Each structure stands twice: as C-alpha cells, then as structure tokens.
Amino acid sequence: MKFNKICVLGLGYIGLPTASTFATNGIQVIGVDVNLQVVETLRSGKPHIFEPGLRTLVQAALGSGNLVISDQPEPADGFIIAVPTPFYADKRADLRFVISAAEAIVPHLRPGNLVVLESTSPPRTTLDIVAPILERSGLKVGPDIHLAYSPERVLPGQILRELIENARVIGGIDRSSAQAGNDLYTLFVRGEIIQTDATTAEMVKLMENTYRDVNIAIANEFARLSDRFGVDVWEAISLANRHPRVNILRPGPGVGGHCISVDPWFLVEAAPDITPLIHTARKVNDAQPHFVVGLVQRLLGVSSQAGLSKKRVAVLGLGYKPDVDDFRESPALEVACLLSKAGANVRAYDPYQAENHSLGLPTMSSLEEALAEAELILLLVNHTLLRTLDPLQIAALTPARLVLDAVNAWPVEAWSAAGFEIHRLGASTARPLS
C-alpha cells in the first residue's frame, strides 16, 4: 500500500515524534491535537515536551513543509491514533480519548484507508470498540478499510532512536490490514516488523510492561524484607544476580510512567478472576511510596504521619524515572505529596522541572533553595545531575545531616565522610524509635 499523506491524532510523547519522523522521511503529515495550546506551541516550532533531539526533529519536519499542525483531522491515506489511555480512580481503562479520536476520523474515511491504533489498550479494544466506530462511515472494516494495532515500544530519553531501531509488532484485523500496517511503518522503521493479529499485538504490549511490573514488585518486597531483617538489599541483589538464571531488578520508591504503572490494570480489568498475581504486584508497587514515607517518619523519630508536621524535608527528584521531564504517575511525586499532606515542610527540586507550580506542592527553582533549611534530604530519582552531586558542596548548602537515598545513587563512604548520616532504601534504613 502506498502512503502519500497520513494523519496522526495525539501529539504527545509518541504521536509527536512519530508524526515528525514520517514527515522528515518525505511523507505529508497532518499532526492533530485537541489541546489548542499544544497546537499553537508546536506551530511556533517549540515542542511542549522534553525529549533529547525532539526540538530539532520537529523544526526540521515543520521546515520541510511536510508536517502541518491542526486541531482537526483531514482526509488521508492512513490514520494513526496515538492518544493517551489513562485510567479511572477504580483502575478501569479510560478510553474516552481513543473513542473520540476514532469518531473524529469517521467523516474522513475513504475506501482503502488504513487506521492504526497505537494507544495502549485493553485486549480486544481494536476489534470491539474501534472497529464499530469506524464502520459508522458506512465502510466495512476489512473489505473496505484496513485496521491494525501497533504498540509503541520506546524508552523515554531514547524515543527518537528506538522509534526507528526497535522491532515493531503489527496486529491486523485481517492479513491485508497487517500488511498495510507493515507498508506504513516500513517507511522509517529499521528494526524487524512482525505481523500478527490485533488482539495478540494488544496483549504483547500489556505483557511486556506487566512482566516488568511484577519483577519490580518482588524487588520492592525484597527491599522491605531487608529493612526488617537488617540486610543490605543492594548487596544481596548483587550476590543473588551472580546466579546464571537470576536477574533481580532494582527496588525504588515505586513504579511510574504511563506504561508500567498503568498497563497491568488493563489485564486485571479484563479478567479479574485469573490475574491475582498481576493485581498483587500492582498493589505492592502502588504502596511503595507509603513505605518510603514510613522510612522518613522513622528517620525523623516520629511515630505517625502527624508527627511530620513542620518537619523540613528537601525532596530531590520528582520525575518517574531518571533524566526525563515526565511526571506521569510518578512515585517520587507521590512521596513528596504524601509528605506535604502530612504537614511536612517540603521543598522539592527537580533539574528538569524547576518551579513547576502545577505539581501540587512547592517546587524550588534551584537546588540551593530546596536545601537551605532542610532537616532531611530525600533523594527519589537517580537523575545524573543529582547522582553526581558533591557531598562536601552539599554540606555547605544545608544544615541537614540526615539523608535518605531511595535509589542507591550516592556512595555511602563519601557522604559519611562529608558529615552526613546516610541511609538507603532496603539497607536497614530505619532506626528504632526511642
């Protein structure tokens, strides 16, 4: 199938790089977002999200004339739906963006078009939700229009490279749809392209992230056990991983981002009677921020969250993972907010989002501001800029001498030599109450 023009709906962390990559490969692209502020920002050549190399790519795409930003879809040969799929408070998938995007496409569909859903979705979303909406056009999915599911499989911070180099799974509702999807992504994907059916492709995406979530959950439980038994979990993991068939992941303050912390719930929602392991892993990881708050309480010598009132805590790092500005479902942000709600005087600093007043707690424009009056320093994200801090320089900036490193980033000997009492998650961090 030949593509002269495609329409990408949703210009977030996946849609914008995808639209720009197609455009810089010579394809005419209409990039659509319903957020008018995003539309105007992109039209001025300024991406609204941070990703290494993205600004240059977007400006090249716009400069070529191949990428046009709009708030409405247009007729095209192919349509890609790359909108968010959050969940409700009860952990059910919120598919309103997917449904809205599919409905917006309907007036523009023509025989022979391809529609690809990239948004992470519960199993059978492509068949049971998207297909019936598209058929409101009067065209039949399969005989008249192609429909496929192709999940993104990229790592924030490396999206532009992995978008091109990673293997791509194309799940069609029939063979011709899978082949049409193959023809589309062949335009820029260098990795292997594997064809399958739509529901299998949906499952592949959910399985990848659920596998990670379950494995992180056991690492977090090991950290809790180590804290109780007086063991250094980091040493224990290092020793256990010497076994040729063991690869325990790193514990931390929880699991965040819009994939690993969200996708497993889609499987639990779809089949709650046969997913007890997945459900339990989600509960373990969702509870990890509360465990970290408990460690802070114990280090500050208070027996309840009420005792945190007016305690001065410098929180370093708020993103969901190192070296990105993505705060979606961030456990670090949750820890900071839990401390603030308990009455602690939280001064938070993240090098990628200084003074972001939309995060729900005070954020400082500089590291110095965050540290100035602290009693305890809490490191929650292993950002390179935070991991490489000099403890001697930090000692000169703050009265705090109590440190909780929740990501095992700071060398204990160096920080101890600088006069700090440093504790780590999962390394007998808590001292007994008096």
Low-confidence stretches: 430-434
What's the shape?
Answer: elongated
Q: Roughly how many Å is the radius of gyration?
A: 24 Å
Q: Mind describing the biggest β-sheet?
A: 8 strands, mixed
How big a fraction of the residues is strand? 5-15%
Strand-pairing-aware structural class = alpha/beta
Q: CATH superfamily of the largest domain, please?
A: NAD(P)-binding Rossmann-like Domain
Specify the number of helices: 16
- Please indicate the count of domains: 2
* Helical content class: 25-40%
CATH class designation of the largest domain: Alpha Beta
Assigned CATH architecture of the largest domain: 3-Layer(aba) Sandwich
Q: Helix and strand string, N-terminal first?
A: EHEHHEEHEHEHEHEHHHHEHEHEHHEHE
What structural keywords apply?
434 residues; alpha/beta; Rossmann fold; eight-stranded mixed sheet; five-stranded parallel sheet; 13 strands; disordered C terminus
Brief sketch in words of this structure:
Helix content is 39%, strand content 13%.
